[in-house]
Amino acid sequence: MNFRSIAVLTMLAVVLAICGLTTSTTAQAPGEMDSIWLHTSAGDFEKVDDGFILNMEWELYVRKAANRRATKYLDWEKLEAKDVDYTYRIEVATDSAFINIVKKEETSDMSGSIHDLDFDRFYLARVRIVDPPLNYKDDFAAGTVFKHEKPSGGRAAEEKNLIYWVKFYFKYGGWQTPFIVLLGLVGLFVVWPITWWKMRLASIFPPNKPGFLYSALPLDRTGKTDHLSDKGNVYIREVAKYWSRAMAAMVQDPSCWDSTEEFIKASMQEQEEVKKRMWVEEGLPAIEQAIDVCKNGVPGIKLKRKPLEYSFPKVLLAALENQRANRNNWWASQEMDRATENTSYKEIDTIKGWTTTAFWALGSIEPMLGLFGTVQGIQNAFIGIQAQLMENPDAPMAETVSKLAGGIQQALITTILGLMFGIPFMLMYYYYRGKADFIFSKWEEIVIEILNRA
Prior knowledge:
single chain; 454 residues; alpha+beta; Immunoglobulin-like; 2 domains; 5-stranded mixed β-sheet; 4-stranded antiparallel β-sheet
């Protein structure tokens, strides 16, 4: 036997050995566990007051021994629940990789439920076999999405509108959230009411009517600030009437003399005597009557408080008392202007008080606290991502995004709260500062009109 014959026989023996091994393996296959197919047949939900319940059903199939490939549905045979003894686990997660599993339940039946799921969230659900065979298969590994809105109306909707968002912001907003909300409540329920009450026109000018609604609501602006109209402020009109008489008594004209010739030929001494007589007989009594109205009010007009407890009467009184003290001398006008201006500035500062400045402070601090929370939230997000990558460099994208989303959520919540309170407070500051300027200019306008009409 030559070498070629030996090689041929050796190769033939190897081929026969391989064929025998394959035949032996194939013959043992029917005795092994067939592949299992877990098929999810149904998934629905049931709404309750505080959330919803997810109900799921599934079936088990085994591959028919006649067809080892099992590529068609007919190649599988359904198993009854009594024929198997498996434990199943229902898993509900918020990500497709099922890393963040929020609920899970185990059961030995082919149906199960997950309770207490929140509304308005995306969920992915799947069913797994606990300790499955090695060749375990399912068609539901990717899960399915369930999202349901909370029922409209009723007590549940009301709780979501009033309480849900408060809890949400306090839970995810960071430590800055309570301070932002507290300062906002102080501004809304302390600073704003005090400022509004002090800057009402009925708190500046003694009103014509004592009623609460008349003084509290922005009604009858003419009756509160105007003295030229017949429907204007009675208090200002009475003061202006007597004050005009006093100013008229300071002016000499031919009517004060028997004739125009006497007025022209009168000496300085004679003119001074007439001037003093007019002041004593007409000017001073008119000033006294105007001062009496400033202090005691107009007879027949009831006020909720004394006239000098309002701001504008103090300005009028300062001018009248200054004019009475300086009589009808040439420098009286300058002194009266100085007294009026100084008193006006003092009263405006009193009206503004600390509340107007508080609006500016709140409008500046609230966004700053929100910005502080924004920066800290972003910092926490990157710290979380860094720690996760150091622990597990191959972490899936879904887990990384979840870490990032938590910090960004905190950042956005504090930003929203800071701007939500800060912008209105800044608007209030500019509004009441403008109103204070209006009040000051109105005082000046009334005094000038009274003097000019004299």
